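User: Some background: our group keeps a shared notebook of sequences we're curious about, and every so often someone picks one and asks for a predicted structure to add to the entry. Today it's my turn. The entry only has the sequence so far, pasted here. Could you supply the structure so I can complete it?
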Amino acid sequence: MSSRHLEIACDESGFTGSNMLDPELEIITHAGLNLDQETATEYVDLIRTRFRRYSAREYKASQLLRHRIAVEWLLGTLSGRATVHLTDKTYFTVTRLVDLLIGDPSYAAGTSLSLDLRPVARTLHRAGPVVFGTARWRAFLATFVTMMRHKRYRGIDGPWVARFLQTLDGLRSERLDPLLQPLRDARPQLFHVLNELRDDRSPVPPPLEPLIPALFETARLWSADGSSVRILHDEQSALTPYRVAQVGALLRTVSPNPEPLLGLTMLDSRTDPRIQLADFLAGVARHLATAELRNQADPYLTSLLRPYLAPTSLWCHQSSWHRLTTSR
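Assistant: Of course. Here's the predicted structure to add to the notebook entry:
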């Protein structure tokens, strides 16, 4: 049986590298757009014509967001031809901490294929700041981020590893100890993971790269009907050929198509209108989702965003997710 071949243009908004705890950029969005180059060019040309004050070669979502009518128009015309995957970066950090220490630290971990430990991560993410205080909990997560950022340089004997383990050991609470104790007992697995991560071709994916599970979820959405997908992506050093191949291998385990991911091609968002349009959508989506997370949203704009949102988005805040995904 032959399958459709789709080209999905992708870009992200909110990427901060390994700085996963930036309070100003709490969310990273990953947009996927199924639009041919000619139609995308018409979209971008219309934006350029309508907003002549901007002379830059590449427009950005921040400029579009100054004009409500432009946001309404964009979201109102792309429905059915685009998707957006959301990642709460702090929650992502907690899921990776749990997956790497007491789960299976594979490419499936962190995706919708590996949900067994998600309740543990949700409980820690929600209760940690309440039990220990927000500042102390975030300081603990920062030791994990720092350890993973410096994993190459000193290995298991590095001072960042010792600092993380010391901070984890100091988190004592009758309420959360049943969840924290397995993390404390997981030193052998932690040391194993840190050693594995010294190799760029490790079976363990980089723990602070939310674009990898976002890419998987985006490609899975577009290939769910049996289509074969080629990803066109803005330039991203995180998406190496080896990592993309691992995403493809993972997709083959769940797809009705034996070759759901045909590959990934890097393109320059300044010259490709499909990537520019994906950038617009990712930036608008991040702005609106952040507003919902902070309870500052415009209900009508949220309703326009709703059809795009991937149900497998990594999101833990219940009330904002309800507003983002449920019609009022």
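Suggested note for the entry: The chain has two domains: 5-88+208-325, 89-196. The two ends are 42 Å apart (CA to CA).
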